[in-house]
Automatic annotation (TrEMBL):
Chain intervals for the UniProt region annotation (Disordered): 31-53
Record keywords: Decarboxylase, Lyase, Pyridoxal phosphate
Family to which this protein belongs: Belongs to the group II decarboxylase family.
Biased composition range(s): Basic and acidic residues: 31-47
Cofactors demanded by this protein: pyridoxal 5'-phosphate
Name of the protein in question: Pyridoxal phosphate-dependent decarboxylase family protein
Organism: Streptomyces hokutonensis
Length: 462
């Protein structure tokens, strides 16, 4: 055995303790470290011939790379919709690496059974029925892709075409309708061969809304003359966390033939709060659902879950025909349900966090984040140089400059906030106007953190 590798094996407990101590020091300071590091990264170094061993690698990482890592696990990283990682989920994630289970199938390990239990807990958390089966994937993009792949196969079933064998060209043009689709939907349509241009945006409700106008959707479906279609509904839009009327959209199936896919990447967590659960009323009527777990469940990257009513069609799309893998059964292995054959046990961090904190603990995180978003929104509205782009509906504050909000000026504001090291916000365009988004989804974030972000905004020339 190579000498550094043999030495590491002999000292493995010590090395794990060193990694634990380093991680603990880093996390202990995450509240106060700069939230982002926009400076230049180190120059490239050549690959070593013999290596330094794990202890040397840890020391070199701590010296060379760790100072430039963002504080995305911390409480004032409000860019994108990024959760942190709860203590229990970090525990589960470390054990995931230590056990290094292959969860392609159930043979030889209980790991796949643990994933099935975790999917069942999540199904209950989001108030879906037993008819919805699920599996873990990497993130919302893959979850949306899987859901739309099953939808594509459903279209083939309706038109007498086996898409998984004959190809998407056998379908002819596909109609995909949505009000305010996330960009990952277009990406998924490109990957699936349906085409980005087949996504038709239906008008949204008037009055500073991003939710689809169901009357307009009804009319758009009627124009198809009975041809089956795909409808992508939103349970939480990316800019303002607006929600489509899922129950009313599902009711359109009485008159039209369509697959209902719901992108509930982070808005689905509204189901945890009695005050906001009405926003996802009708989610259980969806044919497929996307939920991203490294957002509001606060488990480490990468983790998401997808649900569908038609596991038979999902298996037809994703089954892997190989003697050494076995054929799909009535309860197919996960390798027959997602794009991946090789699968990390992403369920374990979620299992740990769900068991450790229960539905009540995760409800508290959601409700606290929502309250903090409203707190920041009220503060932004009171600043003379800023204005809200839309009402704060859940956990995202979308705002812009009160005067002359050009792309250059708004980008400069985002850079100025990042340069302080106090917070990180991401840019967007809402209703044709450049804006910034502050997304609250981290389990650590407090009123004091929110007030620090507001104070940073107030201190900058606007």
């Amino acid at each position: 055995m190579h000498s550094p590798l043999a030495d590491d094996l002999a000292r493995l407990p010590e090395l794990l303790q060193s990694a634990r101590d380093f991680a603990a020091r880093e996390l202990a300071g995450v509240d106060e470290r700069p939230v982002v590091h926009p400076g230049k990264a180190p120059d490239h170094e050549p690959l070593p011939a013999d290596g330094t061993g794990a202890e040397g690698a840890l020391a070199r990482f701590a010296e060379r790379w760790a100072p430039g890592f963002s504080g995305s696990a911390g409480p004032r990283y409000l860019g994108f919709v990024t959760g942190g990682a709860t203590p229990a989920s970090v525990t589960g994630d470390w054990l995931t690496s230590a056990y290094d289970q292959n969860v392609s199938g159930a043979a030889g390990s209980w790991a796949a059974a643990l994933e099935r239990e975790t999917v069942g807990w999540l199904r209950e958390l989001f108030r879906l029925g037993e008819v919805h089966s699920g599996a873990f994937v990497t993130g919302a993009t893959v979850s949306n892709t899987v859901g739309l792949a099953v939808a594509r196969e459903w279209l083939g079933e309706r038109l007498g075409v086996d898409v998984s064998r004959e190809g998407v060209s056998a379908l002819g043009p596909v109609d995909v309708l949505s009000g305010s689709p996330h960009s990952s939907v277009s990406k998924a349509l490109s990957v699936l061969g349906i085409g980005r241009d087949r996504l038709r945006q239906v008008p949204v409700l008037a009055g500073n809304r991003e939710a689809v106008d169901v009357t307009q959707l009804d009319a758009a479906l009627a124009e198809l003359g009975g041809r089956p279609a795909i409808v992508v509904a939103n349970a939480g839009t990316v800019n303002t966390v607006d929600f489509d009327d899922l129950r009313s959209i599902a009711a359109l199936k009485e008159r039209h033939d369509f697959w209902l896919h719901v992108d509930a990447a982070f808005g689905g967590f509204a189901a945890l709060s009695p005050a906001h659960a009405h926003l996802v009323d009708g989610l259980d009527a969806a044919d497929s659902v996307c939920v991203d777990l490294h957002k509001w469940l606060n488990v480490p990257y990468d983790a998401a879950v997808q649900f569908t009513r038609r596991r038979d069609l999902q298996t037809r799309v994703f089954h892997n025909s190989s003697p050494y893998l076995g054929l799909p059964t009535g309860d197919p292995d996960f390798l027959h349900l997602t794009p991946e054959n090789s699968r990390r046990l992403r369920a374990l961090p979620a299992w740990f966090s769900l068991l450790a904190y229960g539905s009540g603990g995760h409800r508290e995180i959601v409700e606290r984040n929502v309250a903090l978003a409203h707190r920041l929104g009220e503060g932004v509205a009171a600043l003379p140089g800023l204005r809200l782009s839309a009402p704060v509906r859940l956990n995202v504050v979308c705002f812009t400059l009160a005067e002359n909000p050009t792309q250059e000026r708004v980008a400069a504001l985002a850079e100025a906030v990042a340069a302080t090291g106090e917070a990180f916000l991401t840019p967007t365009v809402y209703d044709g106007t450049p804006a910034l988004r502050a997304a609250f989804s981290n389990w650590r974030t407090s009123e004091a953190d929110t007030d620090r972000v507001l104070a940073t905004l107030a201190s900058l020339p606007l």
